[in-house]
Design brief:
Beta-Lactamase, five-stranded mixed sheet
Length: 167
């Protein structure tokens, strides 16, 4: 395992532990989607944003400048989180570490699963995973980092505390 993968996996484990909500409902999903949209606009990047609760899409926005492929990627990354209850980026990095992708190891169709960064589990303290937030449009690690920064703000966690290590 490379040092970079090990460091990212450690950091993602910390992110998943710290970035939990006291409660989360449809209004929270709307707020999260809006915050992601504003963060993308501020960074001058275009993504497709999806928030799901209990396997139902409650927020979906394709920013100007995205393509239909972004929604397809978002769905595939979201499927990884709904199956594994962990970040799609962590699943992808673990596959790199083991030398085999989750999709191949589990016999999953690549058309439906993509263990790339950009989908993160929505957790409520004391309850567990209740949904998924996904963005698609940037490179894998950047999609993941964008989500984490917005989730940290919503959860009252210092974004620097959960930022991925710098290259």
């Amino acid at each position: 395992m490379t040092r970079e993968i090990a460091e990212d996996l450690q950091c993602i484990a910390r992110q998943e532990q710290l970035l939990q909500f006291p409660s989360f409902d449809h209004a929270s999903a709307w707020d999260l989607g809006q915050r992601l949209k504003l963060a993308c606009e501020a960074a001058q990047v275009a993504t497709t944003i999806e928030v799901r609760l209990n396997r139902r899409t409650v927020f979906l926005y394709a920013m100007p400048g995205t393509a239909p492929a972004n929604a397809h990627w978002a769905r595939r990354k979201r499927n990884v989180v709904e199956m594994m209850d962990q970040s799609s980026y962590a699943v992808g990095l673990a596959g790199q570490e083991e030398g085999i992708s989750m999709e191949l190891a589990m016999g999953l169709p690549a058309a439906d699963y993509a263990s790339h960064g950009g989908a993160f589990p929505l957790r409520v303290r004391g309850v567990g995973c209740i949904g998924v937030v996904t963005v698609s449009g940037l490179p894998s690690r950047e999609d993941h980092s964008l989500l984490v920064q917005v989730l940290a703000q919503m959860c009252g966690v210092d974004p620097a505390q959960v930022a991925l290590p710098m290259d």
